[in-house]
Specification:
about 290 residues, alpha/beta, Rossmann fold, Elongation Factor Tu (Ef-tu), domain 3, 2 domains, 8-stranded antiparallel β-sheet, 6-stranded parallel β-sheet, 10 helices, elongated
């Protein structure tokens, strides 16, 4: 997958091929996001291009109030590539960019690529303010070569799937539900974190319920069935484990595995299950 930044795109560094585009923050690439991306990928006579942000806009606008990423940017880019997206634009949400009107943004995009299809969500907005909604965008391109497709929300369990819904469910410890909304297991990216080791455990510090470096939001304190994932191709690259999250850290028992890159989080254990497992471990130690 080709990666390019917004300024390079606007400077004409993208080949003039018929292109289908979708745009979004895409934090937590859930089934609603996937519906948008699938539509731009499926076009047989167009190249697929996804526009997203190098840094979450909420982190720029309100750093103190930012709750954390549902997925790291590296995870998002990797998932886009796995979905067979041809190219990805990472936008710097700079003061200059966010000062643009919606019409200016769309004109720049249409000049930068041979824009044949624009696929947007029903709640998409763009421009300073923002000042353009899906109906405005459809009117802007009316009569041009660009068709605008407005995609309705994906509904699961009677409610639309959204990043805000994922955050609420994750905050309640519903990791299995989050994984279903993502169509993939909830995975913590540790590739940039400083892992500390003692005689029995490994772990990373957390702050305000998220990892320190990657700022990824975590499930609430508790014990979880999980899986360590290391470097691909290593002799031991995966191992089942118990993940413990408290207010200051997430940690797991030492395991015979190489460099740990990710933790795939599965089911949350009930208090009774956690106590039984801990008691069993203590008995085993005494024996």
């Amino acid at each position: 997958m080709q990666a390019i930044d917004w300024n390079a795109l606007c400077a004409g560094e993208f080949s003039p091929t018929a292109t289908a585009v979708t745009i979004g923050v895409f934090d937590g690439l859930h089934v609603g996001h996937r519906a948008l991306i699938d539509r731009v990928v499926e076009g047989r006579d167009t190249r697929s291009l996804v526009l997203t942000f190098a840094v979450h806009p909420a982190l720029v606008l309100d750093p103190a109030g930012f709750g954390g990423y549902l997925q790291s940017r590296a995870q998002t880019v990797s998932l886009l590539e796995a979905m067979r997206v041809d190219a990805c634009v990472l936008i710097d949400f700079s003061e200059r960019f966010r000062a643009m009107s919606g019409q200016e943004f769309l004109r720049k995009l249409a000049r930068a690529v041979d824009l044949r299809r624009l696929v947007i969500g029903y709640d998409f907005r763009c421009g300073h303010g923002p000042d353009m909604n899906p109906a405005d965008i459809a009117r802007f391109f009316s009569g041009s070569q660009t068709s605008v497709e407005i995609v309705n929300p994906v509904v699961l369990d009677g409610n639309p799937v959204s990043s805000s819904r994922l955050r609420r469910v994750l905050a309640d410890g519903g990791v299995d539900t989050v994984s279903r909304l993502l169509a993939a297991p909830y995975t913590i990216d540790l590739s940039a974190e400083a892992i500390a080791y003692d005689t029995a455990h490994a772990g990373v510090p957390i702050t305000n319920g998220r990892t320190k470096v990657g700022m990824q939001v975590l499930p609430p304190p508790g014990h979880y069935d999980a899986e360590l994932v290391g470097d691909p191709g290593a002799t031991a690259s995966r191992a089942a484990t118990t993940l413990t999250i408290d207010e200051n850290s997430l940690r797991w028992p030492l395991a015979a595995i190489g460099t740990i890159r990710y933790i795939v989080v599965h089911e949350r254990r009930t208090q009774g299950e956690s106590n039984a497992r801990n008691e069993g471990a203590q008995i085993g130690t005494r024996c």
